[in-house]
Design a protein that fits this description.
Chain lengths: 118, 113
């Protein structure tokens, strides 16, 4: 249980185009999902918190107009990289939070999406 | 976000030896920590967690130690196996402020057969 998928797993696009990445919780409902960005040999950087039915909360320094997040249902959050540029090339990882009823809630991570902007 | 860093970016150990991966955090308000394992090209996997009211927690072949005085935690892996080769991250959270986790730099563990 508690499986999170991402689609696509890998995408290559031309500079100036927009790319949408999907994050799905397959067997549980997630009111909260998170989007991370990871550069090669670097750590995960939290970009934003995706809240179902409301606006995403972005971390400091992350452009909300550049990285559009939509959490339209309890099992799906999407990240759209608008007008992508080569510097947006990165590994994008989402996680979905499973409310366990305990005092803390566990996050399950997706397998990541490798974005390459030419 | 909070600053979480690791002392050693790379670590090589012989198969069968014990591994110790360290992590320093800067926010004394952090009260929940998780160690994650990430294999190449994949998302992080939960290994073990610890709350600030504990100083030690054991799992299967893994132990996490938390020293709040010096804001340091470590991950000990017993009898390291080739399958343990991966990058290990610690992540910190302040429970009362939300569910956001902030990740440390990461340590790449290589197990030598």
């Amino acid at each position: 249980g508690a499986v999170v998928s991402q689609h696509p797993s890998r995408v290559i696009c031309k500079s100036g185009t927009s790319v949408k990445i999907e994050c799905r919780s397959l067997d549980f409902q997630a009111t909260t999902m998170f989007w991370y960005r990871q550069f090669p040999k670097k750590s995960l950087m939290l970009m934003a918190t995706s809240n179902e039915g409301s606006k995403a909360t972005y971390e400091q320094g992350v452009e909300k107009d550049k990285f559009l997040i939509n959490h339209a249902s309890l099992t799906l959050s999407t990240l759209t990289v608008t007008s992508a540029h080569p510097e947006d090339s990165s590994f994008y990882i989402c996680s979905a939070m499973l409310r366990t009823g305990r005092s803390y809630n566990e996050q399950f991570f997706g397998p990541g999406t490798r974005l390459t902007v030419l | 976000g909070e600053s979480v860093g690791l002392h050693l970016p790379t670590l090589s150990v012989q198969e069968g030896d014990n591994s110790i991966i360290n992590c320093a955090y800067s926010n004394s308000a952090s009260d929940y920590f998780i160690w994650y394992k990430q294999e190449s090209g994949k998302g992080p996997q939960f290994i073990i967690d610890i709350r600030s009211n504990m100083d030690k927690r054991q799992g299967q072949r893994v132990t996490v130690l938390l020293n709040k005085t010096v804001k340091h935690l470590s991950l000990q892996i017993a009898a390291t196996q080739p399958g343990d080769s991966a990058v290990y991250f610690c992540a910190e959270n302040i429970e009362d402020t939300g569910n956001q986790f902030y990740f440390g730099t990461g340590t790449s563990l290589t197990v030598i057969p």
